[in-house]
Predict the structure.
Amino acid sequence: MESVLRVEKLHKRFGEVVALHSIDFELKKGEIHGLVGANGSGKSTFMNILFGSQNIRESGGYGGKIFIDEKEVEIVDSRSSMREGIGMVHQELSLIGELSVSSNIKLNRENIVGGTERFKQFAIVDEAGNRKEASAVLSKVGVEIDTGAKAKNYSTNLKQFIEIARELDNEKLKVLILDEPTSSLNVEETNLLLDHLRQIASEGISIIFISHRLDEVTDICDRVTVLRDGVLISQYTRDEYDIKRIALDMIGKEVVQTAKTSGRRSENGILKFDRVSINSGDRNHEDISLEVREGEVLGITGLAGHGQEIFGYGIMGLYNLEGSVLFEGKRVYPGKDAFQKGIYLLPDERKELGLLIEQSVSENMVFGSHVRRKEFLKHPSLGPLSGFNQKTIDSYVDSMIESLNIKTKSRSQTVRELSGGNQQKVCIARAISVKPKLLFVGEPTRGIDIYSKEIILKMLLKLNSEENTTVVISSGEVSELKRVCDRIAIMYENRVFEIFEGDFESEAFALAMSGRRVD
Ligand SMILES: Nc1ncnc2c1ncn2[C@@H]1O[C@H](COP(=O)(O)OP(=O)(O)OP(=O)(O)O)[C@@H](O)[C@H]1O
């Protein structure tokens, strides 16, 4: 097969951190090529170079050569990258919510009503033509929606498909880079996307597929390249690779799966939502009840968009909650009151709600934790005004960096400079630092590599067994929940459909995921 993209000795340095060491890589026409590696191994850096991202330019550019169709090209910005036929869909989606789906897809490629294009400022956009073409390109990824509706009206999952369609609309497209395209999709949506990607590749477009889900990588990719600490470690074809081998190359050691062993859970309820209503902005969940038991690890799952996150978001005041909630037998009010009583939420939308992006790893990790960790204060009896005990904080932060395997230069590095997965780990560290009585955590392992996933699950279990923190995990990763939870609540159409206790492999459990019961 002919080569579409080739890089020679690609090199990137951020100050003293070498993010990519002299990478040689080739992508063939119509190939789906998996790019895998632990958090911080250099995957995004590699793709950001190919896509001419601003952060590469601002940090001194890159070294090495890039060839498209065997012709050397210089990629200075995303425009030059698009001109060469490279398209990318990032983990953080970038649609303009107020614009219609068709305007997003056709942005800078609009059809103009015949004759008006000659008078630039009076050119009339051919909305009907745009909508027709947008619908046609969306059908390439199996989606049929109203393309005249605003993008913000669609779920994150659909936006993912719309972004891919936007790239496919570029008729020059040769290379499509997808960074974790399935991380927020459920099983059906993932399968749908993978099927369409196979079809797109068979029509001659080459795909670079970045994912931490190795089962998907081995399902769909013709070849796989493994990066570790910015070095290209190995490259396999379909008949050479298997998940175990790839994982070993990524991490350098075998990954042992975590499972819950013992716990101190009781039958007593610690947090009780009694026929409350929770409004998430676009959905109203009415008359819903849930009792969380003291000391348990409770999983909340269901198909995406069915409301797994509402209890945590509601009690912390991010969604509007009305009705009675009791915590340790007493009325608790959303927001500050809940926090002061010992409830903490680590939301799934970390970037928007969790991280202080311009502050250091250390500041992020201990933010808000002095309330329950008096050892972080200089004079605990005098409260925060007495100042912080920096020595204790520093050694605590260093120990968290080590146990969570966070790739950072030091505790004072700005969080913005960390890779996506390492930023997530900082959030997890903060939730653990707060030592809450009850922790709500959303999608704790999204975007995290296979090794670090296990560390995070282990730490949540440790918090539960050693600090007696009740943990509520809302997640679409059902197999992880099955390993670590005492009970799993399944949400369906905005309410709790069923709560399972230990019988997670039953037919009833599988059916409940799609709102059905055993006859
Ligand atoms: N703007 C920056 N300034 C300083 N260092 C950076 C910057 N961007 C990335 N790095 C460093 O480069 C290395 C590679 O990061 P990169 O984001 O490419 O990893 P990744 O493989 O995509 O990780 P993840 O799976 O977590 O997304 C990391 O050590 C990261 O801290």
Remarks:
- The chain has 18 helices and 20 strands.
